[in-house]
Design goal:
alpha+beta; Jelly Rolls; 35% strand; 325 residues; single chain; nine-stranded antiparallel sheet
């Protein structure tokens, strides 16, 4: 019975840490407040002082160079590597931005890497280094073309796994594709390559890529409800994995930045009366409270007031006693 309790407190800790962190305003929409998620952020040197990570697990052929990168696979055949968060990403609305690098010396290369938000975590397998028949969202950056006529590679696609359906390697996942785009030039780009995944529960899911020029984002896809079902399990782990076969490449993670997103509203002059607020032209969910993080923060303030009052009353009582003598 210890595991559910552990998961509950881990999720509560994740939200509380994100709430008390310094907030910033999204550049593209002043009504969207971004609160950093420390539990799902990954930056150099990647490891704590004891050479372990508090928030992430690593496995397979993953190699960590603390001043440069997390290398999921080297430019060698038959490698698989992965990293997964230890704490589930339970926020309703979030943004994950990952800087990565796919490169190598060969003219033939592959197979590619993946971004995961799934119930499963840290299970090595045949789908870009992670498990098949997953439940949740997989974003695949496929660099090796098997059998997909008329499609330019690298190809980036999303798949929503139901826990039973397998990824179709022979046809590069075409039958189970939720959405996708060609990203020719992403591999071996001369600028930092990034992927930014933005999710508003029951509203929208979008993926933007940076690989053509620095600070220029290209939208790969944007899905909206109820036209498309893209519901991610409420308790999902963030992960990254990569795989090589007979063809191979370096697959590096440089950094991961995760944020909770909050709609702070705005003046009626910024949008038509009665119209929902938007981010990049997409509907946003109604403003909600901060959840468990805000609840814990209010409890902390409550006890802080009680302690302050007690200390003040004690000082006052001691002063009165001193005045009698």
């Amino acid at each position: 019975m210890w595991f559910p309790v552990k998961t509950f407190w881990a999720a509560a800790l994740s939200l509380s840490l994100s709430t008390v962190s310094a907030a910033e305003t999204a550049q593209d929409n002043p009504n969207i407040r971004k609160v950093p998620l420390r539990t799902h952020t990954l930056e150099s040197p990647y490891l704590d002082s004891d050479m372990h990570s508090r928030w992430w697990d690593f496995g397979g052929d993953t190699v960590i160079r603390t001043d440069k990168y997390i290398r999921l696979t080297s430019d060698q055949p038959s490698q698989q590597g992965w990293i997964f968060s230890r704490v589930p990403l339970t926020a309703s609305h979030w943004e994950v931005e990952v800087e990565f690098k796919i490169h190598g010396s060969g003219h033939l290369y592959g197979d590619g890497m993946a971004i995961w938000l799934t119930k499963q975590r840290g299970i090595q397998g045949p789908v870009f280094g992670s498990t098949d028949r997953f439940e949740g969202l997989g974003i695949f950056i496929d660099t090796y073309k098997n059998n997909r006529p008329g499609t330019s590679f690298p190809y980036v696609m999303a798949m929503l796994g139901d826990g039973q359906t397998s990824y179709d390697h022979a046809h590069d996942g075409r039958a189970t594709e939720l959405a996708g785009c060609s990203a020719r030039g992403l591999r071996g780009a001369s600028i930092p390559t990034k992927a930014r995944l933005t999710y508003f529960q029951d509203k929208s899911l979008s993926l933007d890529l940076q690989y053509k020029s620095e600070d220029t984002w290209t939208n790969c896809f944007t899905l909206t409800a109820p036209e498309t079902n893209f519901a991610i399990p409420p308790v999902s782990y963030l992960g990254f994995s990569a795989e090589t076969g007979e063809v191979h490449d370096y697959h590096d993670i440089i950094s991961v930045k995760a944020h909770n997103l909050y709609d702070t509203g705005g003046s009626s002059s910024r949008r038509p009366a009665g119209a929902p607020p938007t981010a990049r032209g997409r509907p946003l969910p109604p403003k909600k409270s901060g959840g468990w993080g805000w609840f814990l923060f209010k409890i902390f303030l409550f006890f802080l007031v009680i302690v302050g009052g007690y200390v003040g009353w004690t000082v006052y009582r001691m002063q009165r006693r001193g005045s009698r003598f």
